[in-house]
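re: ur question from yesterday

yeah so i grabbed the chain u mentioned. its 412 aa long if i counted rite. heres the sequnce exactly as i have it in my notes:
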Amino acid sequence: MIYLPRFLFCVFFIPFVYGFEKGLQTRQATLTGDTQCGTFMCIAATVNGSTTSYVLSGLGKDDFGWMAMGFGRQMTNTPMVIMWTNIDGSVTLSQRSASREEMPTVVANPPRVAALSMGLSVVSTTTPQLAFIIPTNGDSSQSVIYAYGSSAPSSSAVDATLLQHVDYGVLQLNLAKQLPSGTTVNPPVPTDVRTGGSVDIPLKPYQRLIVAHAVFCAVGFLIFLPAGALLARYLRTFTTTWFKGHWILQFAISGPTILVGVSLGIRAVAEANAMHLDDNHKRWGIAIFVLYLVQCSLGAVIHFFKRANRTRRPPQNYVHAIFGLLIIGLALYQVHSGYSSEWQNTTGRDPPPRSVSIVFYIWVALLPLLYAAGLSFLPKQIRQESKNNHAVSEDDDRNNFNLSQSEYRTRK
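ran it thru and got these structure tokens back, copy pasting raw so excuse formatting
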């Protein structure tokens, strides 16, 4: 009877151990997953029953700032997991989303909660591997977006500001791919280490529209409009045909250019699935465009409707001149905000080259100087107007429109 406990142990415990081992082997054998890479980073996924682990790894082609992935095919409304390392060796995991193509913001209650996995992470390297575990959603084929940033966030807070990404795209993971027994998907070892220089990331279609919008609006508002104002300021004391060149520049040339630029901006917002008029740049852009239309209308009223017996320059003429200078000043502000902040905030890309700012500030300084120099002709203009019966005779050049005198109705 003394051997009965040993017998019972062999009968019950050994089969239990054997069954546990076989179950563990079966569980290991059913692990599935996949690895896919972009230009700067890779994503390795391992499905382990009710949970899936994801390892984000850099390929060493640029400085490491942060890495992100999202569950979907586009940035808009896609749940994202964004990760970065901190100077104390810790790792921040931030779950975010974005309603349009802009910096995503923290989501308090994401659809699936991700947990940082330091056991699968490697942080003591210039090409870190950052891992997290998230509940499995049952996908056998999974579309994911990814992004790689070369500038680290300024803090370890989950809502820290993210700077531009240098790589982004869409990957397709085959989560049904069976893995060898006892293994997990491992990210590739970086073999192409960055040797310096910048990387050119192709522009998305909506970003090309933004660039075209910027070019047309800058040319229309900052070149054609000032040219028309300077032409009027310099030539009105030398020729009575100055108005013809003035309205051609201000309306016939600037108008279509500005209209195309504004239209391209509206189209870019729609292409990016973003919201219209949701920031100051967009609101000011529409406001300045409306002011430009008002200014053109005011100029037409001043030119076509005049008192026949006027003896001095009407107040609306001064309003028209001041209003025009105001529009050009607002346009300078608008262009600066566009290239200095709106571009980065909207696209997440690097700011334009420093040469853009240099050219801009040279033009900002040059325009007032050119206009101030034109004011030196103002005494001559006043003498001319006084000599011509105190009337602004040079504004009466109706023939510059190739229209006859009888086609105008003069108010008494």
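noticed a couple things. The first strand starts at residue 32 and ends at 37. also The first helix runs from residue 4 to 29.
anyway ttyl
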